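It is worth pausing here to work through a concrete case rather than discussing structure prediction in the abstract. The textbook approach is simple: state the sequence, then state the predicted structure, then interpret. We follow exactly that order.
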Amino acid sequence: MTTPNAPAPIQRVARPLGLAACIALVMGNMIGSGVFLLPAALAPYGWNAVAGWAITISGALALAWVIARLTVRLPDAKGPPAMIAAAFGPVAGFALGWSYWVSIITANTTIAVAVVANLTPIVPLLGQVPALGVGATLAILWATTALNLRGAQAAGSLQLVTVILKLVPMIVVVVLIVVALSSGSAVVAPFPREGLTLPAVTASAALTLWALLGFESASAAADKVADPTRTIPRATIIGTAATGAIYLFVCSGIALMLPMAEAASASPFAAFVTRYWAHGPANLIALFASISCLGALNGWTLLQGEVPLAMARNGELPVWLGKTDARGTPVRALIVSTVFASLLLIANSLNGLVAIFTAMALLSTSATLWLYLGCAAAALRFRVAIPAGVLGVAYALWTLWGAGLSVSGLSLVLMLAGLPLYWWARRGAKRLPPAQFAEDAAV
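Step two, the predicted structure:
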């Protein structure tokens, strides 16, 4: 109880995220670099990629339903890692939570690259001078982090705006696809005589999942959501279904209606608009695509602070990472995550933008798949959404295999690499209640 003249209690979050903001968070994190650069990576697969999309969307919906039902079954579990810990113990929860954090850091590097790549039609030097492109990418990483340091509400407001803006290039492409097909001016890649092949479908499915990563976003940010047991499941399913439908039509249309050389460019959306409309509007579309990627980066930056924050408060990471400011912003976790993302970018800076994107997308996808596999197994453990859980386990294992043994093996090594830090954190600090982590605004 406070006296009339006493300072008001510290408020960690000014206003929790509602259903619209949660759907925006889910769709904003999913609709980003994937839809705008994946046609370049999928172009060699042709119709096999269409089959890959169908399988990926089905698997993503099954996993989204699993996470939504687990949110209702485990209302006190703040995010997928906590759900896995409830099912299989704290070590499993930490290992997959750590893997998820690694995947988010890798994803942010990938998305920041996509922001710059989509600007290359407007500023060609970004693609022609590697140092300039890397410098611009680093600047975008840190600018987005600076915005998130202002708090979840500021990040959520930007997310609502960018979700609306990022739909513009997709609407334009949808209209152009319909007009080109109905007028007969489009040349669609023929269906292969030999039919679809399992290796090509599998490889393309591993890439397409990158575009759908993020359907767990609302659950991962449960502490910032109003009425989470009701809001999170609805936002998760609506956001995943809507995004999957958009991706299937738009990405397949670009990959099948552009010549291989044009589809494989750093900005395939701009190339598509140039061919079926004009060069001027294509530059505008490239700008909107870059804004879309920026919106996704904003949403993932929010999560790259929330995930280690929750783990630190559970005693799984050093207590130092669990500190927040007066708005509840995990300042230290955000800065540490962005430092790691910057180092990852610099380590791969000798490659071209598309090559960096493809490599980082596969690694991020593989690291996240371990988390999805754990969630599906947890659903079976608690006998929740059993059919979806079985499908989720099968899909996650199949996609890990499709990503390649080297990539999936590396993601497994990165996951296990966090265990020494876990044991050190558990040994050196006891679990503390969240209130003890709040810092004064002056800190």
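Step three, interpretation. The mean pLDDT is 80. DSSP finds 19 helices and no strands in the chain.
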